[in-house]
Amino acid sequence: MRSQVTFISYLFCLLAISLTSHARQQAQSLFQQYESSLYQIRIIDIESGNKSAIGSGFQIDDAGTIATNYHVISQYIFHPDKYRIEYENTAGQTGLLSLIKFDLINDLAIVKQNDGYTNYLTLAQALPRQGDDIYSLGNPHDLGMIVVPGTFNGIKKNSFYQRIHFTGSINPGMSGGPVLSDQGEIIGVNVATAGNQIGFLIPLPRLSNLISRDASSEEEMQQYKLHIQHQLHANQEELVNKMLSTNWPQVELGEARVPGQVSDILSCWGGSNNNDQKRLFSSIKQRCNMGEQVFVHQNFFSGEVEMEFELLGSINVSQQRFYNLLQQAINSAEAPNRASKLDVSNFRCRHGGFENQHSSMQKAAFCTRAYREFEGLYDVLYIASTVDENNQALISHFTLAGVSQESSLKFAKKFMESTSWQ
Fold it and tell me: pLDDT digits over 76-123, tens only?
């Protein structure tokens, strides 16, 4: 029996070695065949002549059209007088690139070289099957073009901004590079990593949609920030409508009932301090968020939703101290997305009290900050606390990043009507 187990283990080892060897050979073959279609994309500081940002890109037709990530060329979009876009191909030749169009929401951009290089990659007709081998190409850390074998794991679950889950190493500098099937066809674009052999790719249909989209005229295209504004507006409307189109389930949080996982694009987490024997107060929490954002530029993210609830109860503290604790919890609420003072105004808040449809009295603050360069878009922070119990309180909190006033008010109304005491 032992010799049989040993033999089976030996066969598995041989199979693993064979599969690994095949993947390496296939990766090497694909790289040699398609490396002339690959480019390093460079953002050059005009004043110094040096690189300010780098990424990867790949040619998709014989007219010099190249696909990359929006975030790779975002510095140019915000400061076209300060930067220019250049390429370097695998032969070491360099040249200028012009920006044709971009998709901020899906982190894609189309640029073009006019130097006559005609080698290009073709789009696949469909995504691979889960478990299939795929190959990520790019230029990590400015070290030169490489190919990384990995596994296609399907579209990431619970994702509004769809991403392919890729088992493989995507490193800085590989952003915007192509991901190929074993037939050498494009099935996605490198975009991000979570480390530990977990990478994320923009799926083929998103790229196909951008390629087929009509290009703006040269004059219209130069209004980059207006394009961003339109894309952010369309995205927030789709996102909020998706959130509001369902009946929100309620879950128990101590003696309160609060919205649970109201959409499949949110992930919810909970916790409490009940195992702390020395606690002076009880705390039960639930937090739901998207866990993904839209990159606008280096210090500015948008397009996220977060909901949080905390039930606080007094155990061994005075009413005054409990009130101070409650105020501290309320004051710690903040917007989830990064943004600088150059991008957004200060929060302006309206305070008031109300009784919702479940006869729960609450004090609330509704705060907004405006996007300075994108008219009609705001970050929203709402926080409320029940006031009709002396020794316990429910703190309800939500944040929205990059929404219109109309969307924020609709969301706030549904949120406020979805909490109650049992």
Answer: 999 999 999 999 999 999 999 999 999 999 999 999 999 999 999 999
In a domain, 214, yes or no: no
Q: How far is CA 409 from CA 32, 269, 341, 386, 403, in A?
A: 55, 26, 24, 20, 10
Can you give 144-207 as a three-state secondary structure string? CCEEEEEEEEEECCCCCCCCEEEECCCCCCCCCCEEECCCCCEEEEEEEEEECCEEEEEEHHHH
Q: In angstroms, rounded to a whole number, what is the distance separating the alpha carbons of residues 141 and 174?
A: 8
Domain count of the fold of the chain = 1
DSSP state of 112: E
Six token digits for residue 287:
């937090």
Structural domain that includes position 267:
231-421
For 71, counting Cβ atoms within 10 Å of its Cβ (0-12 exposed, 13-18 middle, 19+ buried), the class is buried
Residue 204: pLDDT band with limits 50, 70, 90: very high
Per the domain annotation, does 271 fall within a domain? yes
CA 102 to CA 74: how far, in whole Å? 10
3-state secondary structure of 120: coil
Give the E-state strand segments of 46-145 in sequence order: 51-59, 65-68, 83-89, 94-96, 98-103, 108-112, 133-138
End-to-end CA distance of the chain: 62
Q: Is 261 a member of any domain? A: yes
Whether 301 is in a domain gets the answer yes
